[in-house]
Amino acid sequence: MTIEALRPEQLRHVCDPAQFSFETTRELEDLGQTIGQERAVGAVQFGMGIQRAGYNLFALGPSGTGKRTTISQFLHRKASGEPIPSDWCYVNNFEDNQRPTALRVPPGRGVELRKDVEELVEELKTAVPALFESEDYQTRRQQLQEEFQERQEEALNEIREKAKTRDIALIRTPVGLAFAPIRDGEVVTPDEFQKLSEERREQVKEDVGELQDELQEAMRQARQWERKARDRMKELDREVAMLAVGHRIEELQQKYADLESVVAYLQAIKDDVVESVDEFRSSGEAEGQSVFGVPMERLREAAFRRYQVNVVVDHSQSEGAPVIYEGHPTYNNLIGRIEHIAQMGALVTDFNLIRSGSLHRANGGYLIVDARELLMQPYAWEGLKRVLRAQEVRIESLSQALSLVSTVSLEPEPIPLSVKIVLIGERLLYYLMNEYDPDFNELFKVEADFSDEMPRSPENDQLYARLVAAVARHEELRPFDRYAVARVIERSSRIAGDNRKLSTHLLSIADLLEEADYWAGQVGRDVVTAEDVERAIGERIARADRLRQRTQEHIARGMILLDTEGEKTGQVNGLSIISLGDYAFGRPSRITARTRLGKGNVVDIEREVELGGPIHSKGVLILSGFLGGHYASDYPLSLSASLVFEQSYAGIEGDSASLAELCALLSALADLPIRQSLAVTGSVNQHGEVQPIGGVNEKIEGFFDACSAKSLTGSQGVLIPAANGEHLMLREDVVEAVRRGDFHIYPVSTVDQGMELLTGRPAGQRDEAGAFPAGSVNERVEARLIELAQKQRDFADGVEESSSEGRTDSDSDGE
Amino acid sequence: MTHTAEHEGTPIKRILVGLDASTHSLAALQAAAALASDLQAELHGLFVEDVNLLRAAALPMSRELQLPFGRPAKMNPAAMRRQLQAQAQRARQALSATCRRYRIEWTFQVLEGVVPSTVLREAAQADLLCLGTASRPVMQRPKIGSTAQAAATRANRSVLLISQGAKIEPPVVIAHDGSPAADRALPLACQLGRMAGGLLTVLVRPAPSRSSDRVQQVLAQRLEGENLAVRYRELAGEEVTSLIEDIRTERAGIVVVSRALLDPDEIHRLLDTIDCPALLVH
To answer: For residue A182, is it within any domain?
Structure first.
């Protein structure tokens, strides 16, 4: 069987610029949609449309595929047609100021309410003292005081006069009041008193007792009067305060009559002002005074803070529902926080220091959060879940939630939440969360899986051209001519690693366009051409390919041993790929195999030294399966083989070298030399079928570069799995070499095809009798394996004989 | 800057302040100390242990109703004396602290006796008597106490009466009718005027023998060089009522009146009605 090398046109899916009817992308309209993400866009539409609990969305896919842009554009378009949600304010709860009240007001009216209340308080600060300083008030107050004092005075005078008629005086002692008999205006001495008649003395005693009782009663009554007078003065103060406040607040209540909660709040302000009117009255009185160094004015201003309105969500400037992107999703940035201020050495807070989080601002709309950022922030994910489950935002400081501090803080009234959350993250993150967080499925029921590639078709080429136009316009780049667009599309296929696909990794494409624009600018072009795109690609590779160059140099200088001509037994050129960030290149490696008599195992030296990964080991173990099944089904596989990647000092993973390893092994077994002008890549299964591998373009180019560095002989080439034919998007110079006949790409489907190409001998199929044709590769392999099995048997028989002889001897000895 | 007030040839060198540890008497102490400092006078504090209280405490049926709740309690002379001594001690401490602050010389004396007569007797040894308008009043509204009343009408020395919370403030208002008795009040009024910021308001009281204009002219000449801003205001009538009204209208900081201008009843009415300190010049 003859394996035909691939034709040059099969090596690169060229984009024909002639299919484009435009000269430059300036003529193209913007792309109003996301291309190649039909599945994801459908999911987004569904997720954002369905109004059920838990239908939040997780946009998953590789970074740079335009997840955020797509979702953001979609949401902004959708949100612009949706109603603007309510404003939210926090106000003082006059019954319990540790639990501020949340007020919901129509959009834009939060700020209006704040302004109205500020004006009201300012007005009260001047109106209330003015009323209390008015002559009317002072007169009424004085009248009340006088009434009380006169009443008290009258009662006392009455007693004093009564006492006087009985020659008794009311006197003030250091601690109270007492009655004493007097003569000529002076209290009688005890001697004088004793000189009085018994009857008179008794009379005085009786009079004093009676007067004392009356005075006691009068004092008791005076206290009642005093209490009543105080109550009446308080009532007067209330009346006056109501006069100052009532009218103005009623006006506001009428203004906000449609908002029941605001009306109730204004009523609470009114009641509070009336109750604590002294704070307004004392304006100016305490000028210059201070408490612990804090001026009284400041303390009073602080007291007025309780009438402020803290607008935590303001939609006065909004159009449509909010779409918020939270770039730093910490617990506090999401849920909101309660700030503190230092006052006299202590940290204090009030409802004015409540700050909204992005959940508040996105309430009634959409919140976009980066999943990785969210998970990296302590307690943010837990906080978000709690909010979504409760469907309300309860601001709770993290330190309090964790009981780290026990100072008195606030417990603001929770705000009901209606928001769609969009998490954006990598697939791995989605699957991990799905697997390990039982709440995740309940809260994020919609997945929007963003693909990193899209089918390449003439229609999609046209869409891609419009994408280029849109990016160029959006990023203010020079227009791209159609040749440049064609080159971009080819590059996109190469990024996708598939000549039937286009990459949807928009970030890479945007980078390419920006760099091509730069190089066009460097040579003074107004339009970006294919040459500029090519240069951008080349320069980008050049910036990243230090290691590739060094590897190629080492090959050229013979430091890495690699034959690109001649023949060697048990030695084949394998191809591996080295990834450095977003740049990857192929590295040819010599793979060698040695065989000997053994127990049927193939030793993977890479694995033995823990340089080979599990998939690589799996590939090697498959070889034993192939050998056993293909050649040694009727006799024991008495082979011991070792395989190694020569001069490989780093870890190896993947099974893409298993075909090369098998070829080396078969060469060693058959004792047939392998053409060193060929390199091999591909994995094999136990039936000897060749399976596709990744990075085929880089691998081919890697060997091509190695051959070019030495010299292209025309016999060099690479064996690739036939299934990888669709992935070929080779460099132009490789394609050109193939066109010239200097280089060849052979698609192989079986090991037999590979061995035929490598050895130049037919592999050989079993005939009816089950034998391989004489001289074929397989016949030589089988013969060798049979030989090894025979040797094994002979060896085993010899050992048995010698051991049985030994036993006899020893038995004899025993006798 | 200090000035020496001439008081018909008797400079004020010794001021007697009656102390009973009440807030009124403390106000009197402050005013007296300020004056003493300005006049470079000596301050003499007097506390009188009220003999009436001691007698009352010794009577067999003596009981007192303790303030503020009217709780009845038996009185006894020893306890009463201790209470009075404690009051005297507090008065002494207040005097000492105030005088130290004003850097003036002071003496203090405790005497036993009937308060008004003892104060009046001791006042004879001083050039000016300072008293609180009331002692410790029974009622909230301070009325003129018996000692203040006695001093205002009977003391043969000038008397400064001052109530709780008050102090010597501008404007200083003097009532003058052009009589020599009124003239005697002028030097002290000028002195107070300078102490209180240089403002003096003269309420010119019309008299049958002197026209207001004439009085005003004479006064203007007399007050020349006193370094005072003087305002004149003619009283509407001769009665004490118009004097009281004008004192109120002028929002007087302190009133200076020659005692000869008013009879005792008028003095009582005046003191009972006005809110500012009053200096009754003998």
So the answer is: no
Q: Do residues A116 and A151 share a domain?
A: yes
Give start and end residues of each alpha helix (H) in A410-457: 427-436, 440-443
Rounded Cα–Cα distance for residues A111 and B168 (Å): 53
The answer as to whether A436 is a domain residue is: no
Q: Which of A293, A315, A337 is the last residue of a domain?
A: A315
Last residue of a domain, one of A544, A576, A591: A544
Domain count along chain A: 3
3-state secondary structure A93-119: CCCCCCCCEEEEECCCHHHHHHHHHHH
Residue A807 lies in a domain: no
With a cut of 80, say whether residue A351 has pLDDT above it.
yes
Mean pLDDT score of chain B:
84
Is A153 part of the contact surface with chain B (CB cutoff 8 Å)?
yes
Residue spans in chain B of domains classed CATH 3.40.50.620: 14-52+80-162, 172-281
C-alpha to C-alpha distance for A708 and A588, rounded to whole angstroms: 13
Which residues on chain B are in Cβ contact (under 8 Å) with A216? 65, 70, 72
Q: Are residues A628 and A702 in the same domain?
A: yes
Q: Output the domain CATH number for residue A571.
A: 3.30.230.10
Choose among B62, B65, B137: nearest Cβ to A180.
B62
**What are the chain B neighbours of A225 within 8 Å (beta carbons)?**
none
Block residue for tokens 């003892």: B118
Q: Tens of pLDDT along A148-166?
A: 888 888 888 889 889 989 8
8 Å CB contact between A547 and A580:
yes
**And the tokens for A775?**
């001289």
In this complex, is the C-beta atom of A175 within 8 Å of any C-beta atom belonging to chain B?
Answer: yes
Long-range contacts of B265-270 (CB under 8 A, 24+ apart): B266/B240, B267/B152, B267/B153, B268/B144, B268/B149, B268/B152, B268/B153, B269/B240, B269/B244, B270/B240, B270/B243, B270/B244
Predicted confidence at residue B140, as pLDDT, reads 54
A189:B141 CB<8 A: no
User: Are A638 and A588 within one domain?
Assistant: yes
Q: Could you name the CATH architecture of B172-281?
A: 3-Layer(aba) Sandwich (3.40)
Among B67, B80, B139, B275, which would you mutate to test the A interface (most chain A Cβ atoms within 10 Å of its Cβ)? B139
For residue A375, is it within any domain?
no
- ipTM metric: 0.83
Task: Tell me which of B71 and A736 has the higher pLDDT.
Answer: A736
Confidence of residue A261 (pLDDT cuts 50, 70, 90): very high
In a shared domain, residues A500 and A639: no
Query: A766 to each of A630, A752, A758, A774, how far by Cα in Å?
Result: 10, 12, 20, 10
CATH 3.40.50.620 holds for B14-52+80-162: yes
Question: Do A492 and A595 belong together in one domain?
Answer: no
**Inter-chain CB proximity B60 and A190 less than 8 Å:** yes
Interface test with B, best of A142, A170, A172 (most B CBs within 10 A): A172
A599 flagged as catalytic: no
Taking CB atoms and an 8 Å cutoff, what residues of chain B touch A220? 70
For residue B3, what pLDDT is reported? 42
Going by the DSSP 8-state scheme, the letter that residue A368 receives in this structure is E
Q: What pLDDT digit, counting tens, does each position of A170-208 carry?
A: 888 888 889 999 888 888 988 888 888 889 889 988 998
Range of the domain at A532: 8-36+451-544
Residues A509, A522, single domain; the answer is: yes
Rounded CA-CA distance A706/A547 in Å is 14
Which residues are CB-neighbours of A198 under 8 A, at least 6 positions away? none
A699 is catalytic: yes
Which A positions 200-229 lie with beta carbon below 8 A of chain B? 204-205, 208-209, 212, 215-216, 219-220, 223
Q: Is B65–A178 a contact, with Cβ atoms under 8 angstroms apart?
A: yes
Question: Between chains, do A189 and B87 touch, taking CB under 8 Å as contact?
Answer: no
pLDDT one-digit tens code per residue, A602-622: 777 777 777 888 888 888 888
Q: Looking at CA atoms only, how far is residue B273 from chain A in angstroms?
A: 13
